[in-house]
Each structure stands twice: as C-alpha cells, then as structure tokens.
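<backbone_tokenisation>
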Amino acid sequence: MLPARTRRKLKLYVSSPLKLKRVRSSQGDRTPQTHNACRNMRSPQGCVLGKGIEKVSIDTKNGGLDFCREPETFSRQECACNPVRLFAIVSMQRSGSGWFETLLNSHMNLSSNGEIFGPSERRNNVSMIFKTLDTVYNLDWFSSASKNQCSAAVGFKWMINQGLMEHHEEVADYFKKRGVSLIFLLRRNLLRRMISLLANTYDKNAKLLNGTHKSHVHSPHEAEVLAGYKPTLNITTLVSNIRAAEGTAARALECFKTTRHIVLYYEDIVTNHTKLVEVQEFLKLPTQNLTSGQVKIHSGPLSGHVANWEDVQKTLKGTSYENLLKHRLYFLISMAMQSMLRRHRLKKLSGKEKEVMVDSESGINEQKRPEDSMPSLETVGLDTRDYNVR
C-alpha cells in the first residue's frame, strides 16, 4: 500500500485520458518513483511501455512530477520511458524571452513551443486555457521546436498579459497538479525594455526590413537597420509606466510564489553564462552548451537610441530609476553577446573553415582568440551594485 500522501497525489490524475501505471519505489516516498531506465536523464534510452500508458514519478524533494508518457498522436519509440519535465517561461514582451527560448531550444532534449497564448481564442476562458495546456503537456503540440521522441523537458512561453493574471488562481492550481515548473524571465533595465517596445511597435507598421516586420534579427545589418529608428518617450508618463511594469512583474511573482520556480534576469544571463547551466539543472537536464543565432538590436548607450534623450535624463534624475540611465553595463552586455554569437557561428563550421575564418575587425585568426568564457562584471572592474545587478 502506498503512503496516504502519495495516494492523494495519484488521485489527481484519475481524470487523465491516458492510463496510469503506479510504480512503487523500494526506497520509500522521498525518492523519485520511476523505472530504472527513466532515472538517468543523460541518456535518451528507455524502455517501451504499452501504448497509451503514462508513468508518474512523484518527486517530493524537488516539488515536481516526472512523466513517462506515450502521446496519442505519435510514438516516442525507444524514449517512451524517459521522464518529461513540464515548464513554462513567464515573461513580458521585449524582455529577451525570444532570445532565451532559442537558447533553450538548442538543447537536444528540450522543446519550448513559443507564445501559445498569443491568439486570444486560446485564453477566452479557463477551460480553453486548460485545453491548450493539456495539448502542450501531453506532447501533442507540434511546432518547429518539437523534439518528439527524445523530449526530456517540454514547455512554452507565457506572457504575463496573455490571460495569466486574469485566471492566476486556477492556473496556479493546475501547475501544482501537473507538476509544472516556472521560469520567470524578467528585465532589470525597464527603460531599455520600453524603448524596445516602442521601436518594435513602430516597425510593425513601417516594416523597415524590405517590407517585412521582424521582432528578432540574425545579422548585424538587420540590427543596424532596426536600431536606426529612435522613438520619442512620453516624459509625462515615463515614471508611472516604469513603475507599472515593475508592479506587474512583482504581482506575477507573488501569485505564483508557491509554484516551483526560478527567477532569471536577462542582463544576468548575458553577462554570466553559468545562469544557463542553472536553468538546465533546474529542469533536470544534462548540461549542454546552448547557442543562439539572434543579434541584439539596441546595443551601446541609450543616448543613441532615444530621440529626446536629454528630456529623459532630466525626468529620471533624482528618482529611484536614475540608475537605468547608466550604459556601461550594456557595453559589456553587447560585447558578451557578440562573443556568444561568434562561438555559435564557429560551432557550425568545419575544422578547415575555422582555421581560415578571420576576424574582419582585427585580422586575427578567430580560432586563436581567448573566448572560452564570457566576461563577468567583476572581471572588467564594474561594481554590480551600481547597475542593480546581483
């Protein structure tokens, strides 16, 4: 007989369309109850269960559930017994979530399916939200990021303003029942986020790149074209808008504080690549080198990206948001992202191509440059307290 607490948790899944197979661990309730082949997350190999069978692993120590499931729309083949961690990236527009998601999707065992709640019909009510979530978490949602058989972590990106907060109590209960882990991705410099929002909104109509709107770019030329537009910020509502964005993020954290989660900041990920290792460990994934081909659009000091920069400075000076005006941190971020992009391109080249690849700026062989690690703030002598970075 299973312990009472374990039986209560299993009872939550009686209504699941998939059959359940209960597995008791010989080591007691405190250890993940999985088949031996499911325990090693470093290998895609597993045992094939019967069609339609779902194996539930209860992990009381880490507060999450592992699923060894067989979807209805395809066969996971030899990976059928591999546990799958369920997650959601909770973020706000123009907070680096698109770039972050491409990094995660470069992992061979992870599938993040984008903004699934972009279309309003998927979030009209709680029932539609749950139906959409079930499709994703049952591995029956197909996108360009789908890894199908060898998925060890499956999730999506949920913007805070896409129905999440309107039904946060019901969604929080759903997350707990399904064992979903949350990755909060926020941005420290909300002034830069505001500039990025305005520029992106402008390009939706202007379509600066040959009549095509792009929210994310993959070449320095495209980034330069989009960065050519300098928005004018509304000075009257500047402080209140920043404060509102700050409050939105704080409220989301408060509403889901009891859900298993990790909080990340865009600036920290760029300047400290070990943050990506933390994310992989949080999702119980084998650690891999994550890469992205995206290029940052607004790099360098903010003064070069705002039409009324002097007015912005006057408005924020003397307020609690004055530190957002500082730009030295973003010079470091720009250099770090260039380093990551260079390594991403090198990874795709063959040995001979790497030998002949020459840095166009310095004429030094790319392979011989010391880029085995990204610089940290402390490395270049910056005080993290001055930049609200921790």
